[in-house]
Predict the structure.
Amino acid sequence: MRHRPGEPGPPAARRPGDTLRIGQIGGVDVLVRSSWLVVAALLAVVLAPEVEMAQPGLGAWKYVAGVAFAVLLYLTVLLHEASHALMAQHYGLPVKSITLHFLGGVTEMDGEPDTPGREFGVSVVGPLTSLGVGLVFLGLHQLVTSGVLGLAVWSLAYANLAVGVLNLVPGLPLDGGRVLRSAVWKATGNPHQGTIVAGWGGRVFAVVVLVYFVAIAPATGRATSTSNYVIALIIAAFLWTGATQSIVSARIRRRLPSLRARSLARRTLAVPHDLPLSEAVRRAREQQAGSIVVLDAAGLPTAIVNEASVVATPEDRKPWLPVSSVARTIEPGLTFSASLSGEPLIMAMQKVPATEYLLVDDDGTIFGVLVTKDVDQAFAAGG
């Protein structure tokens, strides 16, 4: 399964506290969440009777066998996620991490494929890997048919084939949903429409899972238990939540192209760093400038005056304070091209959150200042 984060950044800097780094694949950190321990414990308990039947007399070692199976199972999940990561890297997409957790795994990327074909390739390779691994273990089962080893081989074959088939279901957040998204994207030329269609596919599948376990299975006389209902509810909630988040995200991103830095920029006034604040404000009002940029002794922009700080400064102090005292230094990431628009603009703002940004033209000259509040208002108004 793949995930596109809303805000890129170094994996180690934002690694959750409940994860353990166990290595790298292709330069990508492999993380394991503590929830995996819950899976290992559950499998040890659930598989204990099966292990006892397959090889009687193991005693407490049957629980050790269950934990060992959990390790092997998640190694095959890691192969699934690694295939996503390596294919994404093949297409030039940065991959932040691979994380194994309670429900399986997730490959976290910065950005997403820029064509339907690449979206299809990155998405479909995971389920195909699981199916391939399942077929390999199915073949091994012809050679190892008895004992704990035979049970493990058969279980790994079944689990990987099930994961491969399940992930090909055409609904987000499953890989098959992204395959469907790529098809709709190819047909309509609109990736956001593809996401919405695939999101609804995920919602439908969530309902199908719940209805099957709650109504259809009991009606057909198939054995059900409390654990089956709990598992069905967890899976349905996971699918519905992931699909809904995808639909909401697509609807938001569909509106982003109307946001253009150049049209949202405020006219700016450039002043020396030692100019009194009151004089800088007076000049800005006189020239109808909505922002003030502070220049250093060489005439280069070094800071942007913060509007809130100006308002909060008492009037009787403004003549005695240099304008630089209420300005934020222009750090890396606070300057970008005035030609940015849509999602690239939002991504640039998310990398370094701030209230104001300096916009420059292609020749490096100051174009204006982009105020985050103005962008928010434009988006709320529909662009």
